[in-house]
Amino acid sequence: MARKNVAEQFVDILVRAGIQRLYGVVGDSLNPVVDAVRRTAGIDWIQVRHEEVAAFAAGAEAQITGRLAACAGSCGPGNLHLINGLYDAHRSMAPVLALASHIPSSEIGLGYFQETHPDQLFRECSHYSELISSPQQMPRLLQTAIQHAVGRGGVSVVSLPGDIADRPAPEKSIEHALVTTRPTARPGDAEIDKLVRMIDEAERVTLFCGSGTAGAHAEVMQFAERIKSPVGHALRGKEWIQYDNPYDVGMSGLLGYGAAYEATHECDLLLLLGTDFPYNAFLPDDVKIAQVDVRPEHLGRRSKLDLAVWGDVRETLRCLTPRVRAKTDRRFLDKMLKKHADALEGVVKAYTRKVDKHVPVHPEYVAAVLDELADDDAVFTVDTGMCNVWAARYISPNGRRRIIGSFSHGSMANALPQAIGAQFVDRDRQVVAMSGDGGFTMLMGDFLTLVQYDLPVKIVLFNNSSLSMVELEMLVAGLPSFGTSYRNPDFAAVARAAGAYGVRVEKPKQLAGALKDAFKHKGPALVDVVTDPNALSIPPKISAEMVTGFALSASKIVLDGGVGRMVQMARSNLRNVPRP
Prior knowledge:
Blueprint: H1 6-16, E1 21-24, H2 31-38, E2 44-47, H3 51-65, E3 69-73, H4 77-80, H5 83-91, E4 96-102, H6 118-121, E5 128-131, H7 138-152, E6 155-161, H8 162-165, H9 189-201, E7 205-209, H10 217-227, E8 231-233, H11 238-241, E9 248-251, E10 257-258, H12 260-265, E11 269-273, E12 288-293, E13 307-310, H13 313-320, H14 331-347, H15 363-373, E14 379-382, H16 386-394, E15 402-405, H17 415-425, E16 431-436, H18 437-442, H19 447-453, E17 458-463, H20 468-476, H21 491-498, E18 501-505, H22 511-520, E19 525-530, E20 547-548, E21 551-552, H23 566-575
Parallel strand pairs: 1-2, 1-3, 3-4, 4-6, 5-6, 7-8, 7-11, 8-9, 11-12, 12-13, 14-15, 14-16, 16-17, 17-19, 18-19
Antiparallel strand pairs: 9-10, 20-21
Helix pairs in contact: 1-2, 1-7, 3-5, 3-17, 10-13, 14-23, 15-22
């Protein structure tokens, strides 16, 4: 029997690590690995049109499954295309292994055709980035890369010259058991004791939750009930904490709504749970703050902390809840619930007035109808920009739905490639890409990937022929909009020409039927909705101090728009407030 080559050994280790797909674009330096994938059971090569899509798709797969996913790029320009999607995966803490194939090992450092230094280029967007320079290195180096990606939550990059990939693997190589799941981390008793004292001494406590509360919904609700605390969330915490939440006061940040801003500023103790919320202008500087996070490097980098607690949110709350003194005073909680309901009532009619006659279609209305018609376990992938606004305000989480976007990296064009990765995980699960026309056209070539693999992704295209979020930034800064308009085709016709289902919606009364028909279609489908480019209303008073780069400094004055079904939950929560 012929000995395995390094590429075959590489692929075998990927399979042992649970990787089922390798997303990428073929190229000469990658040929040994791609051929090994072809001949290996349990793993598939997913051919995309652009390597950036490969990285985004792998990152989405990792976020959906919680398991390691992988992508690959050929030498030089090929693997360079991976970098944006890898940045997104890394900042989303998605475990992704990237193979950056390399020029012939004998030519490295000599200015060879397509030469780059991928082991150096990817260091900022990875926990581990190393070059394999001999066959003897490969097994241990790849295993180390896998354990970095899984153990630390993020990206590892392995650079492999094509000639080394084609060489015979060593006969006695070291292959050990792989770590493919992460443990939970409990804080020390001293930190728990300090946090208990802070909570017991505080009269008004607010919880502000991020993506680190994934899997901890029950614990957060039990804790909030015990200490009578309002619960706000960041955008990445929405899908984990908003649903079935009688303490919900909304979201803070540029896309914020409700009373989250007030709740975080009017308390005397703010608990940041599993959030690396980046906009410190929205955080108070005159209340006590304690932060719980499983990543110690996140502690205190957004605000001054009175207590830093290193630990998993769920395990921390399991230790904390039985030990804190139960509070009976609901006045602060009830005040915030009323403020939240009042705030939502004030904007809920923004998209309902004459909606059946408004042309172009209100994008808020599109998102609201989409929320009603989509499956209860749908996966939504959301383009950066105004689609973030519509998803944040109209897509209702329920514990089964997923909402994925480039929420930390903020890249355009993420929704379509992330939908590819999410759909490959489960072809029977509804995957909906909420795409803006700017983001969609940036990587539109990979719409053909949907057709090639007959992936039943449904793209709902918010087509307003402009970069609306950029226009908002310009207006807030007092600048006229410039360079933000597009001349777009009929995207539904483009979809049909590519071999997919396509329908164009120009009037509100066409919307529900078009979405229903697209959802019934068994293959890929695109609903091109011509939406109102003037859907934003800027508050009348904006001071220079309220502008901090991308963000405004107070969530209560950011955008005037509807909030969909969230107002129903707020009304329900308000009915539960005890009357004197």
